[in-house]
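ok so i was messing around last nite and threw this chain in just to see what happens. nothing serious, just curious
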Amino acid sequence: MTNRLLRRAALLVPVAALAACSDLTGGDGGTAAGLSIEDASGNQVVTVSAAGVSGSLTVNQGSQRDYDIVLRAANGGVVVPTATETVRVTVVNSGVASWTGNEAGTLRGNQRGSTTMRVDLISAGTAVYTSPSIPIQVN
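result:
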């Protein structure tokens, strides 16, 4: 009986893995059309879609906060960068805030004020997706 259960479990693991990945490339072939940014607790704090940017990132001066950038397809599905793609984050005024990391990164508040950041998905040296400006507030 134990052997039969193990054989069935071995058959179910690939099926479960495929089911778990069904949302990874989005419904339109994995083309990034927006993004969301989540804090360390998994709360969505910024949403970027065709309608624009909703929310902002905040951090205190002299502090840092971890965030995850999740690229999204037009249908809201998750887009996972391929092995040849990278996520680049550019903060406009690095005197106010700085970002270290890629899609999983840390925002540091350098001095009080506001700035913005942009997220690019880079493939073969070319930006295939560029977000609009995302507001950052350092308190």
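not much to say yet. The chain is about 15% helix and 50% strand.
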